[in-house]
């Protein structure tokens, strides 16, 4: 039902129950209002309502207060409502809206804001150049960054707080054409790090704290991305050669077992997990599609068109708060998709973008161009639009980025055998 009739029905549905709940029992409220039990009950409900309103204000504030103008408008509004109580709230709201409109108009008239620039620091990895790196993993519980260094047969471990670098040696490697392949992907979850190895198609468990190796499982095809799915306590693996996702059960987290296989219509690339709604995201790089899967049923729930073109989509990041999906395009750029799959924003980058990352606390999106050798960080507004925040020179071939809890970015430079570090000012 649409139009005036639909609006009337919606209005009645929203307001009639509240009206009846107040008017019908009103005589009884007067009779019981002075009872001590009723007073205590109302006091408790009022306190809970105050907490709920404060929680709603906090959630709205995280999305609305994104810069100094919005913080200033919020502070002035609060002062007016507390100090000048005679001003009607609708007048204050209209004034704040007008102020926001004037600020936005002025900003557009001044032209786009240029991103600040910075230089990357570097950390040399053991074994010397080159060091073949692909999917890195950050473990928030330990503050460690796990770096699968394929051709060296090592997994390097960086303590992001102290800068200390350790290695876990002894991973199988094998000659594949003119390359040596070995450990290529990591994912942290549940106190373990799961390491994918292209040399023997295995996934092995590594204790995140002690760095002790535990059990392994062999897959029917070479693993690409490995990721922990917290809602089901499983590890999923993209196997593009088979056009499938492999599912590993973690009844014993130290000994993963192959428990399922999800057949897809194309080659999966990239991943993200919505832990609140038990949803898994992956791209089909050869079909230019982004899939949403139900983690519990292992069924495809939705399919989006990111419009990345012939070279297809690559990495994915997800914002739990807005349910917005960020999809990196190999040809360059990152698309912001709303929950229905519509494009609502876009970050411009050079070509050769792979894994991307998202810092929800500051609404910052990170993407690295392997062709340009540049890291781009954009600030994402509440409506999904993006504006440049920072750029940094990295290195040609540095097509992936991962961040730690402070928002510091790490870009693998495989050819140079080093990790490039970009610190984002607060």
Question: Any key phrases for this structure?
Answer:
4 domains, 38% strand, Methylamine Dehydrogenase, Chain H, alpha+beta, four-stranded antiparallel sheet
Architecture overview:
- With 426 residues, the protein is of the alpha+beta class.
- The chain folds into four domains: 1-26, no CATH class; 27-109, no CATH class; 127-263, Methylamine Dehydrogenase, Chain H (7 Propeller), CATH 2.130.10.10; 269-426, Methylamine Dehydrogenase, Chain H.
- The protein has helices at residues 3-23, 26-32, 36-64, 68-83, 89-109; strands at residues 116-119, 121-124, 137-139, 144-149, 154-159, 165-168, 174-176, 179-181, 183-189, 192-197, 202-207, 213-218, 226-229, 234-239, 244-249, 257-263, 268-274, 279-284, 289-294, 299-304, 313-319, 324-329, 334-337, 343-347, 357-359, 364-369, 374-380, 386-393, 402-403, 409-413, 418-422.
- A five-stranded mixed beta sheet has the order 1-28-27-26-25, with no helix packed on it.
- A hairpin with a 4-residue loop joins strand 17 and strand 18 (279-284).
- Helix 4 packs antiparallel against helix 5.
- The longest helix has 29 residues, at 36-64.
- It is globular and about 85 Å long.
- The model is unreliable at 107-113 (pLDDT under 50).
